[in-house]
Amino acid sequence: MAAGVARRGQDGLIILNVSGTRFQTWRNTLERYPDTLLGSTERDFFFHEETNEYFFDRDPDIFRHILNFYRTGKLHYPRHECISAYDEELAFFGIIPEIIGDCCYEEYKDRRRENLARMICCHYCYKAALLHQRVPKS
Hints:
Low-confidence stretches: 1-10
Pfam families: BTB_2 (PF02214)
Domain BTB: 12-111
CATH superfamily: Potassium Channel Kv1.1, Chain A
Protein name: BTB domain-containing protein
Main location: membrane
Subcellular location: Membrane
């Protein structure tokens, strides 16, 4: 048991400050995913020596799910979150949405498809309104 405690100490407990909400985890927990922002040395860009923590001006509610991915290896889609905001957070932290768990993936795809359809509709409505404004009235 003492060896496990010593090993954890070498891994290093780190503090992640996400817009004022502080999260703690082990460095090796993050390093399991070296192709992501938190799992790579890129995270050092966000380190503040004066507070001895990493600061991210991001959404702490969504970050909770991102950190749980590092801890458990399972990425879940929180149904109550805006799909665009969720996608932006995943992209920022370098996590691909294709690894969302089977339990959430269909819901995620459906919400993404609905959002895309809404954006396309809004785009064409906007273009039609602009065109209508430019048409000379007789």
